[in-house]
């Protein structure tokens, strides 16, 4: 009897994991990766989505409720990106530590000035975000901004280890600054490169590198392009050619493949976040890889 | 900028004494001396200010990496709850209009098929918001048109704790009971235009009541939740608010998890026990009455598939449930005297909705019922099974241009009665206002 109940507990995973000091629930892979950089082995990081999932449309799965129940810190993009699923998780998990307003609740977008705040709020405009475009992780400068806030939050939540977090944060920021300088230098070659994007998830990337957006395949944010939309973009490209069509790894590949073939420009599947392809295993590799892909298109 | 400012200052210092006539060399010398003093003094002061500015700027940079502009000033309506409106309407066409009876079951008002032709469904108005850091509140008003007059029904009005210790969540007020998967959810989130037979026959579409609900989330990696409800017992399948308004209680357990990246599931096992006092069912003006115990056990399973967890292009939702009900007490069919009654019933449903391309879904569903034969005393009453086991099968296709709109066509072959029927339903469901988050 006793043995079987022990077995049951083991099967169900009753607190089976080795004890890290803080449980972190990250909505997106980039914030999980950043938490690992800043918290090292003091954190047990769990990520709600993968790079192959559309963070707008994630189901509030039971497994996410149990993971959020244990969390000491929730880090999500915010700016309504997770509005379709996170509120349900927060209500069902009943975890006081990670409710909005608590130190355990952190929206990365709060550390970054958001672009494309809509002047007009109307669902006829598609899936618009009232606070601005939430896809901040496409610019590595924003990662530094979020890192400052996140490391301070870790120190606040886990005061015992604050020296550790401070040291890791300083080391990360130093490495990141060097990497930023390198990326900025590499990216200078891309300035003014005309591109087509599938979803307007690249606003911060375009702005960082000074790329010129010729067209967006989605007629409105979140609305899949019809063949008429694609034909219109193709006609536009005849007059104003672009060097590449960009989409995220999680997006439907057909619209950009269609355009790539007919407009005879390369289709660039950028990782969008950590884990978006095999070469994007961490935050440093993410931007190395993004720039590598963009530069290959610029050179072709 | 700072240098330009200091040059300007110095310039004005120089210009001012120029206007004065210097009469002697001594005067000039003296003025030069004064000027040099002022210059020195100001330079020191400027330097001090500059370093102070730099210091403050550094401090600010550290404190606020990039302050997001706060556009909204205080407004009296800034704390309004999130308001969402759900509208739906339908066109129905029946080959035969055989009424709403399901032989062997005495059903209540919401179990029917509705009327033919155009009709407006329930228009729902939902308000929800955090009340404070401990409580969340929700209110749903349902507006329906009944025989030409509009009736407003208070569908849900509850509060729920957000941060109770011990992984507990307490809900109080009027709410949908958590005894079955669909029961907890609003019908506008369903995959079909109507509910399967066991829901209609045994729960009047959905069971909602006034009371308390307590849930406990187990500290496991697998989702495991246990809960119970204590309810007034005023609504079908209860009725009459027995035991001074504590006529109904339930226990439920939910388990769920993921299988790989693409599959996730949720299973439930529930028990509902009600003590009904003159529960009305059947014809509204001349109802059947039931007094006694009604016990219901429900087992259900939902399985969702989305390739790599990405439901945008393709996804499928499989769902099924088994219902066992045992009712014992006294039954008074309309226009007949009270009869001793002890009967058991069984129901099942299974359905699948498959999104085969973005925005488009098809679905198939079957459901059926079985009821004990209650003997010749019940001949001619609603509990007379007529030797027939009800079943139906439905096909549907729906199209959602966005998350907020859905247009659906459903066909049902209905063998609920001993004579069959075929029904077509064309329906729209739209939601306006706040973007509600979706339950699994």
Can you describe what's shown?
The complex is a heterodimer of chains A (300) and B (440). Chain A is an alpha/beta fold and 300 residues long. Chain A folds into two domains: 8-182, Rossmann fold; 189-299, Nitrogenase molybdenum iron protein domain (Rossmann fold, 3-Layer(aba) Sandwich). Chain A is built from ten helices and eight strands. Chain A has helices spanning 2-12, 29-39, 62-70, 86-93, 140-157, 162-187, 203-209, 227-239, 254-263, 283-299, and strands spanning 22-26, 43-47, 73-76, 105-107, 194-197, 212-216, 244-248, 267-270. The model of chain A is unreliable at 5-19 (pLDDT under 50). Chain B is α+β, with helices and mostly antiparallel strands and 440 residues long. Helices cover 15% and strands 48% of the residues of chain B. Chain B has four helices and 17 strands. A 16-stranded antiparallel barrel of chain B has the order 1-3-4-5-6-7-8-9-10-11-12-13-14-15-16-17. In chain B, helix 1 packs antiparallel against helix 2. Mean pLDDT of chain B is 88; it is low at 7-20 and 63-72. The chains are: A alpha/beta (300), B alpha+beta (440). Chains A and B meet through helix 3, helix 4 and helix 5 of A and strand 9 and strand 10 of B.
Blueprint of the fold:
The complex is a heterodimer of chains A (300) and B (440).
Chain A: H1 2-12, E1 22-26, H2 29-39, E2 43-47, H3 62-70, E3 73-76, H4 86-93, E4 105-107, H5 140-157, H6 162-187, E5 194-197, H7 203-209, E6 212-216, H8 227-239, E7 244-248, H9 254-263, E8 267-270, H10 283-299
Parallel strand pairs in A: 1-2, 1-3, 3-4, 5-6, 5-7, 7-8
Helix pairs in contact in A: 2-5, 3-4, 5-6, 6-10, 8-9
Chain B: H1 2-19, H2 25-63, E1 82-94, E2 117-120, E3 123-130, E4 135-146, E5 149-161, E6 168-176, H3 197-203, E7 208-217, E8 223-231, H4 242-245, E9 248-259, E10 263-281, E11 288-305, E12 315-332, E13 339-357, E14 360-371, E15 391-399, E16 405-415, E17 421-433
Antiparallel strand pairs in B: 1-2, 1-3, 1-17, 3-4, 4-5, 5-6, 6-7, 7-8, 8-9, 9-10, 10-11, 11-12, 12-13, 13-14, 14-15, 15-16, 16-17
Helix pairs in contact in B: 1-2
């Amino acid at each position: 009897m006793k043995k079987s109940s022990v077995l049951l507990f083991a099967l169900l995973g009753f607190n089976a994991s080795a004890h890290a000091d803080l449980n972190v629930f990250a909505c997106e892979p980039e914030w999980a990766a950043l938490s690992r950089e800043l918290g090292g082995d003091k954190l047990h990081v769990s990520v709600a989505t993968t790079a192959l999932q559309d963070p707008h449309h994630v189901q509030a799965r039971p497994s996410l409720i149990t993971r959020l129940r244990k969390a000491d810190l929730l880090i999500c993009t915010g700016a309504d990106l997770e509005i379709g699923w996170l509120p349900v998780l927060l209500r069902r998990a009943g975890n006081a530590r990670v409710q909005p307003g608590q130190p355990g609740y952190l929206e990365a977008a709060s550390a970054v000035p958001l672009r494309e705040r809509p002047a007009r709020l109307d669902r006829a405009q598609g899936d618009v975000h009232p606070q601005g475009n939430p896809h901040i992780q496409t610019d590595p400068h924003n990662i530094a901004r979020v890192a400052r806030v996140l490391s301070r939050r870790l120190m606040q939540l886990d005061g015992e280890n604050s020296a550790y977090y401070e040291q890791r944060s300083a080391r990360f920021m130093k490495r990141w600054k060097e990497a930023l300088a390198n990326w900025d230098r590499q990216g200078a070659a891309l300035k003014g490169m005309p591109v087509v994007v599938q979803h307007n998830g690249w606003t911060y990337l375009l702005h960082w590198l000074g790329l010129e957006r010729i067209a967006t395949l989605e007629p409105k944010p979140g609305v899949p392009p019809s063949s008429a939309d694609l034909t219109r973009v193709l006609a536009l490209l005849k007059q104003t050619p672009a060097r590449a069509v960009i989409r995220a790894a999680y997006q439907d590949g057909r619209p950009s493949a269609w355009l790539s073939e007919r407009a005879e420009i390369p289709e660039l599947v950028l990782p969008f976040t950590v884990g978006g392809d095999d070469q994007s295993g961490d935050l440093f590799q993410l931007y190395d890889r993004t720039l590598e892909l963009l530069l290959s298109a610029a050179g072709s | 900028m700072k240098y330009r400012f200091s040059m300007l200052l110095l310039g004005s210092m120089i210009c001012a004494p120029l206007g004065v006539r210097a009469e002697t060399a001594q005067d000039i010398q003296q003025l030069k001396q004064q000027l040099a003093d002022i210059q020195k003094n100001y330079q020191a002061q400027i330097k001090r200010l500059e370093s102070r500015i730099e210091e403050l700027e550094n401090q600010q940079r550290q404190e606020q990496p990039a302050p997001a502009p706060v556009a909204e000033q205080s407004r009296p309506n800034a704390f309004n709850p999130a308001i969402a409106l759900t509208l739906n309407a339908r066109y129905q066409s029946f080959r035969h209009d055989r009424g709403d009876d399901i032989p062997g079951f005495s059903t209540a008002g919401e179990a029917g098929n509705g009327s033919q032709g155009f009709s407006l469904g329930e228009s729902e108005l939902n308000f929800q918001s955090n009340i404070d850091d401990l409580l969340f509140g929700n209110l749903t008003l349902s507006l329906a048109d009944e025989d030409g007059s509009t009736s407003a029904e208070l569908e849900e009005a509850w509060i729920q704790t957000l941060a109770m210790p011990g992984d507990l969540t307490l809900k109080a007020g009027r709410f949908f009971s958590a005894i079955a998967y669909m029961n907890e959810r609003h019908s506008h989130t369903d995959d079909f235009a109507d509910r399967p037979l066991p829901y209609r026959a045994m729960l009047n579409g959905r069971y909602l009541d006034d009371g308390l609900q307590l849930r406990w989330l187990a500290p496991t990696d697998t989702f495991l939740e246990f809960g119970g409800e204590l309810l007034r017992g005023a609504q079908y399948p209860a009725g009459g608010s027995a035991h001074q308004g504590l006529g109904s209680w339930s226990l439920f357990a939910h388990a769920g998890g993921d299988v790989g990246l693409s599959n996730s599931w949720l299973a439930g096992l529930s028990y509902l026990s009600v003590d009904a006092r003159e529960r009305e069912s059947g014809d509204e003006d001349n109802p059947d009455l039931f007094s006694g115990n009604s016990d219901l056990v429900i087992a259900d399973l939902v399985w969702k598939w989305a390739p790599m967890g990405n439901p945008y292009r393709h996804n499928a939702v499989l769902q099924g449930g088994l219902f066992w009900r045992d009712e014992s007490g006294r039954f008074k069919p309309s226009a007949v005297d009270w009869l001793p009654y002890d009967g058991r019933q069984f129901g099942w449903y299974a359905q699948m909705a498959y999104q085969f391309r973005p925005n488009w879904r098809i679905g198939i569903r079957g459901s059926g019922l079985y009821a004990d034969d209650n003997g010749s005393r019940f001949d001619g009453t609603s509990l007379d099974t007529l030797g027939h086991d009800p079943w139906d099968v439905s096909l549907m296709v729906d199209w959602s241009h966005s998350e907020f709109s859905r247009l659906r066509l459903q066909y049902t072959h209905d063998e609920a009665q001993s004579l069959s029927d075929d029904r077509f339903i064309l329906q729209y469901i739209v939601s306006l206002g706040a973007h509600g988050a979706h339950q699994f």
